[in-house]
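Supplementary Note 2. Why include the ligand at all?

Several targets in our set were suspected to adopt different conformations when bound, so apo predictions alone were not considered sufficient. For every target with a known small-molecule partner we therefore ran a joint prediction. The input for zinc ion is given below.
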Amino acid sequence: MTNRDTVSSKDALNLLMEGNKRFINNTPRQYDTIKIREETKNHQYPFASILSCSDSRTNIDTIFDQNLGDLFSVRLAGNIASTEAIGSLEFSCKYLGSRLIVVMGHSNCGAIKAACDDYKGGNIGEIIKLIAPAVAAEKSVNDKEQRDSKNELFVEKVSFLNVQKQIDTILQKSSIIREMVKDKKIGIVAGVYSLSSGLFEIDLDNSIL
Ligand SMILES: [Zn+2]
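The joint prediction is reproduced in token form.
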């Protein structure tokens, strides 16, 4: 367990990226799970909070090689910043001392593809509504080209933009997070994870550290 008191937002990002490197190189740390359970049974000090997709291939503890008590995880299809997701992030930063919010999209995302196809079925449509602004913002593929899930490049571009849009939503809707970012108590990182390479690629232009 990492002591959050000595961790800055940049340190938190470094811890994540070192873990991601171990994951890519197939050299994960060995853990004494009994000891970690004992250490964390009464409290938690996660050093980072991650809003990521529910996709079964994007579990963050594996991707960043972390264990119990390290990461506060908010997972919803399409890594959408719903009101409840934002509330969860506020809780982790304000009350658990998390130093970093990461919004992580990923390649070949089913939710993004559904949004690209303007899927409206059932409650899934509620998720799509929150991704639609990213689809609309994607202008490099014009109306004469294929603006749907069959166009891989279009899907990847929307996925990238979606991370930015969700961060915008978090900052617009959360005065708690806005203040903490302004006071440099926390940072926010945008990035996309590749299912094929295992790399989490940071979008520095849309991150605040
Ligand atoms: Zn996904």
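The two ends are 23 Å apart (CA to CA). The chain has eight helices and five strands. Comparable summaries for the other entries are listed in the accompanying table.
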